[in-house]
Amino acid sequence: xxxxxxxxxxxxxxxxxxxxxxxxxxxxxxxxxxxxxxxxxxxxxxxxxxxxxxxxxxxxxxxxxxxxxxxxxxxxxxxxxxxxxxxxxxxxxxxxxxxxxxxxxxxxxxxxxxxxxxxxxxxxxxxxxxxxxxxxxxxxxxxxxxxxxxxxxxxxxxxxxxxxxxxxxxxxxxxxxxxxxxxxxxxxxxxxxxxxxxxxxxxxxxxxxxxxxxxxxxxxxxxxxxxxxxxxxxxxxxxxxxxxxxxxxxxxxxxxxxxxxxxxxxxxxxxxxxxxxxxxxxxxxxxxxxxxxxxxxxxxxxxxxxxxxxxxxxxxxx
Length: 318
What we know:
Blueprint: H1 2-11, H2 14-18, E1 31-40, E2 46-56, H3 61-64, H4 68-71, E3 78-85, E4 88-89, E5 93-94, E6 96-100, E7 115-121, E8 129-136, E9 139-146, E10 153-155, E11 159-160, E12 166-170, E13 178-190, E14 197-208, E15 214-217, H5 219-229, E16 237-250, H6 252-262, E17 281-296, H7 298-306
Parallel strand pairs: 1-17, 11-17
Antiparallel strand pairs: 1-2, 2-7, 3-4, 3-5, 3-8, 6-7, 8-9, 10-12, 12-15, 13-14, 13-16, 16-17
């Protein structure tokens, strides 16, 4: 899940190309604007910052975007993260550069497969507020964010039931604003003539932006989703495994950024630019996720086996 979120973070820069026309004034002076994206998490042992430059200048922007030199600085920037806890400034966290090689064709309009990112291997202090300082040849780019604190899922406990409607419950995190709940159903599958494989079915439950501490789901929807998602394989045998319960929480800045960019998908509506980066554009925000595993109740398995025989689920072996 974290790898997916980080992948989304890397391609968010598409917003800036999509909001521009492809033609520029042939006589315009070149100007670069630092574009910064950072998503901090207290559970990560490595923090990542993506820094590129937006560009204006002669030519077609879509063609310019294919050139790494148009988006990356040719030199290393001075990037630091500085925490303040109880009025005391913590030792600065200094970032280094790393090139990733996993970007695929079609992921965005920009160049591939390489991505230059800034990273620092360190544990963040949950009680501290962090400021980002970037020195770009004397031009200072800055931002700050509190961290989303730790929280726990209280329901379900050991077992999860889909025999009726129920809910996921959790306590609220410090600095948390947006909560997204997911279930991931794990199962074993044995098709005729093959080996046993382990599979999973993710299920997005919903978004809680009102800090209610809960998200409801319809039990029958679980079985309906299984019928839709699972392949129809004659003679297949399947066994139910644990359900991963995941609640991801984003800070107020992250929530505002998402809401503004989701507000209106109409091509006739100009999406307002949202940023909390001083001296540049982008966002610095925080997130954190809580996890719990739960087993299907015996009654939920009974319904799965008896009422949905075409899915091939078996009763657990003793």
